[in-house]
Amino acid sequence: MSTLATVVQSLDNLDPMLPDIVALGPRHAGYNVKASDYGPVGEAMLWALEACLRGSWTPEVESAWKAAYATLAKVMIDAAGTLEAKRV
Ligand code: HEM
Asked: Which residues contact 87 (CB under 8 A, 6 or more apart)?
């Protein structure tokens, strides 16, 4: 969650965070996380956030979190896939 919060605050300038996010991908592959797990986990995270932030949950907040999660998930999945490809 704190990684995502940092991303939400840096959506306009993700470059400094990219190396850390790329490294998360292969680590998650090591936790046995598959690309197909990212969708359900993202939905659960949004559901929990909406419940926690009820008063301040706006369409803008929702789309910022969705964008942050989608960006992170894509970078992580791509990085994990690159590692898999190198192993073959
Ligand atoms: C944008 C998506 C995600 C982010 C930003 C994220 C972030 C993190 C971070 C920062 C850690 C701490 C350990 C580390 O740095 O390697 C972690 C651990 C972990 N994550 Fe994620 N994660 C994401 C998606 C997922 C998904 C889809 C799963 C699938 C269930 C998952 C399962 C795990 C597991 C099993 C651990 C290890 C927990 C432990 O052994 O203590 N994560 N994640």
From this structure: none
Say if ligand 1 is within 6 A of residue 28 CB.
Answer: yes
**Taking Cα atoms as reference points, which of 38, 42, 41, 45 lies closest to residue 79?**
38
**Structure confidence by residue, pLDDT tens digits, 33-72:** 999 999 999 999 999 999 988 889 999 989 988 988 999 9
Give this prediction's pTM.
Answer: 0.89
Closest-CA residue to 38 (of 84, 71, 83): 71
Atom number of ligand 1 nearest to Cα 37 = 27
